[in-house]
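I am still getting used to backbone structure tokens and would like to learn alongside you. Label the sequence line and the structure token line clearly, so we can match residues to local backbone shapes. Would you write everything just below, so we can both look at the same thing?
***
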Amino acid sequence: MTRATIGNPLSWSAARLADIGHGLEAAISGIGSHETALPKVNNIGMSDIRVALRKGAEDFAALRSDVIMLVLLYPVIGFALAAETLGGGQVHLLFPLIAGFPLVGPVTAVGLYEMSRRRELGETTDWRAALTALTGRVLGPVLTLGVLLVVIFLLWLIMAHAIWTATLGPVSYHSLSVFLHDTFMTDAGWTMILLGGGVGFVFAVVVLCISLVSFPMLIDRPVGVPVALATSLSVARRNPLTTAIWGVIVAVSLMLGAIPFFTGLIVVLPILGHATWHLYRRAVAYPA
């Protein structure tokens, strides 16, 4: 009896460690591409964007309570970062934070892609099922791309701070009204706006191109990060106008959703996330 009591915890621990090891192995192996051939990239246009947005809204309407559970943390983090920025005398980083926070949006939407995939197949679509699917081969590639987007977001904030230092800085602003006055009523402020806008545009284009279909693709197929990135770039290169229009729709929607203390993102992000899945399905095709 004593032996069983001692042995069971040891056996259980060994089994759990083995499970963790297998999970890590699957996550790491999923980062690399097991397929070198790229899938077929289709031509897409405004009609495809309209269909994707319509289906995205339908998914949100059907799964409202579950998708809100998945994205609720995103606006909370955004609000906390904005509050810290205002309270810490870093008012000049408020707009770069609001403008750049959507750069990591594709990471937070991976659960939404999985829910749209499951709804498409008629499978269970609650948020628990979506999170359960983000393990094994999916976890490693998604985390790898997620880290890449976080690094890009941090680089954007560093660049924004450097532009502010070279124009309106280095004196810290503790008043938002004073900062806004100096931004729009001085030559240095307009220089900061133009430089920041140009640099921010470059960052946004890079993130748009690498995340256009890469995250949904990793959820859908075991293709690995290199093939997913190459396919996403190929879709953007083949459909530059449609990609640009989609980027504007995403940027404007996320900015509007972020204005009322990030609360609008609770609705905007799910619709865009689901719509991204459907746009991917129209942009990428696989051999039978």
Notes: Confidence is low (pLDDT under 50) at residues 1-7, 12-27.
